[in-house]
Design a protein that fits this description.
- With 320 residues, chain A is an alpha+beta fold.
- Chain A is 40% helix and 26% strand.
- The first copy, chain A, has nine helices and 13 strands.
- In chain A, the strands form two sheets. In chain A, strands 1, 2, 3, 4, 5, 6, 7, 8 and 13 form a nine-stranded mixed beta sheet that branches.
- The longest helix of chain A is centred in the C-terminal third of the chain and has 23 residues, at 207-229.
- Chains A and B meet through helix 6, helix 7 and helix 8 of A and helix 6, helix 7 and helix 8 of B.
Chain lengths: 320, 320
């Protein structure tokens, strides 16, 4: 038997960082997934394989308990937190294929968590609703990271295109737009916790300035929601570019991100901005006129991929 | 006989572009000048030499009138506008030594204009007050460029460190700060007129967003005035960095400027931002802890120079 769960990554299109200060954000699940495969074993071993980071780790179940003693390895933190939520009595192989750059602000840890929850629940015969999966995954992210936005785990569970309002309610964005995006990412990774902290410190030092900047992002995010609904391509791009400058002003931009952004804009992108926490990581580019050309340019310059909205959240299949 | 006038260039430290929208700005005259030398000739020729741009141009005075027929050459536009304000009956050599990059947002055209007014006034025995020089120079800039801020010509005439308030009144900033700055500039030049226009178009499209951004610049410029008066070095740098992000958000940043800015910041600069209209041109860097190191780094990367506040405006000397 083989249990497989696929869970999508995400892109924040507008409003990263300001969500922490009760401002809205717009984000989408993308058609790049983490695919987690579970194959039961006949022994008491749990063999975890993550090919993309050459991770191969073996645990043993002794007297119904799993011995987690190990070195701290970040992706395992999420996996072990998932295991601890279930009553696991039988060994298995767990192969986690991460088709997303890790730690690049694209929700890879949420997708690992959600897909692992889905396969382990199935394996241990626990019936979880999507709501329960999303909640469990969010709590696990909080346990591991201390702070976590519900956006990543919600999008990885439900899929789709969302507007998070000022009360943190998730609202679905309904649009027929063909939103083909390009994501490019550097090897340099930002540390989300440190970046959230640095914005907090800046906010404490310059509250009046930062409040004004956050308000400006709020206004443009609300205009972006309408622009997406009305398929106003120019407006979407312009607002992405303005949002990028405001992210730069709060100190989360880097030379690597800025270079990729200007390469894309100079090639005719409508909009280009960092996505996620910044300080490294990824940019998202909207170039409806020449997506392929800019994708190829960015992919020479750094790593890049094309992404579209995924309306599918986590999906589980079982092969006998 | 030789008449020489030196007139300083300028740096806008805070508030470029938003001054057009009745927001304040902070700017200073710098110890980099245009030095214009006039030597009377025995004939009716006017020989204009601008060594830094290999310009060598000859006019003739015929029946007391100067024949300006020529190809359009931008620096000559200012010089001819100056000539037309005076009654010139005798030929002369005019050597204009421009010790500033041209068209890089550092007030070179104002310094050419002011220094040329000063020598021609002296040569034609017209006694002009500084107020009259500043006014004439500003009008000449308007004639040539269509739009012109009074900041450049005022600083080139009077020197010093100024806060331009929301009613466009020039207020002197009084501070004991040792404001050693670094200016770095690219070969790529921005076109001030086009950039002012592009911000205007953005403002017309997104008035609510741009108003919020301009208000934010106003708040930070007012805080910067206090920071300069109180010699709060960290605050000065932080506010420069925030201002830079806001300039990026209104679309006047470029990859070349951004690269220089991040090179400076990554080397430990307290603040780094574009200065002037952007779209190319110059950045200004404040790095009180390691000015020399960052100057050298930037000067390898692009052209750079160190600059300080010049309290001297235009100065005229006559050698017999």
């Amino acid at each position: 038997m083989e249990i497989k769960a696929s869970a999508p990554g995400k892109i924040i299109l507008f409003g990263e960082h300001v969500v922490v200060y009760k401002r809205p954000a717009i984000a989408l699940a993308i058609n790049k997934t983490v695919d987690t495969i579970l194959r039961p074993r006949d022994d008491n071993k749990i063999v975890i394989v993550v090919p993309s980071i050459n991770l191969n780790h073996v645990l043993e179940i002794t007297d119904g308990k799993i011995d987690y003693s190990r070195k701290k390895l970040s992706v395992l933190d999420y996996i072990y937190e998932v295991f601890s939520q279930f009553n696991i009595q039988q060994g298995f192989d767990l192969i986690i294929n991460i088709n997303l750059p890790l730690g690049a602000g694209l929700g890879s840890s949420a997708a690992v968590t959600v897909s692992t929850i889905a396969v382990i629940a199935k394996f241990t015969n626990v019936d979880l609703s999507k709501k329960e999966i999303a909640k469990m995954a969010h709590n696990i992210e909080i346990n591991v990271q201390k702070v976590a936005s519900p956006i990543d785990t919600a999008l990885s569970t439900y899929g789709g295109f969302i507007y998070l309002d000022t009360d943190s309610n998730v609202n679905k964005i309904t649009t027929d737009i063909n939103l083909e995006l390009i994501v490019a990412y550097t090897q340099k990774r930002g540390n989300t916790g440190l970046l959230v902290d640095s914005v907090k410190k800046e906010y404490e030092k310059y509250p009046q300035i930062l409040e004004n900047i956050f308000n400006t992002v709020e206004i443009l995010t609300n205009q972006a929601k309408s622009a997406l609904e009305n398929q106003d391509k120019t407006l979407i791009g312009d607002l992405m570019n303005i949002n990028q400058g405001l992210l730069d002003s709060i100190g989360v931009n880097t030379i690597e991100l800025s270079d990729m952004i200007y390469v894309a804009r100079n090639e005719g992108a409508y909009g280009a901005k960092l996505t996620g926490s910044g300080g490294g990581g990824s940019i998202v580019v909207y170039a409806p006129k020449n997506t392929k050309q800019i994708f190829e340019k960015l992919n020479k310059f750094e790593n890049a991929f094309k992404a579209e909205i995924s309306s599918n959240g986590v999906e589980v299949t079982v092969k006998y």
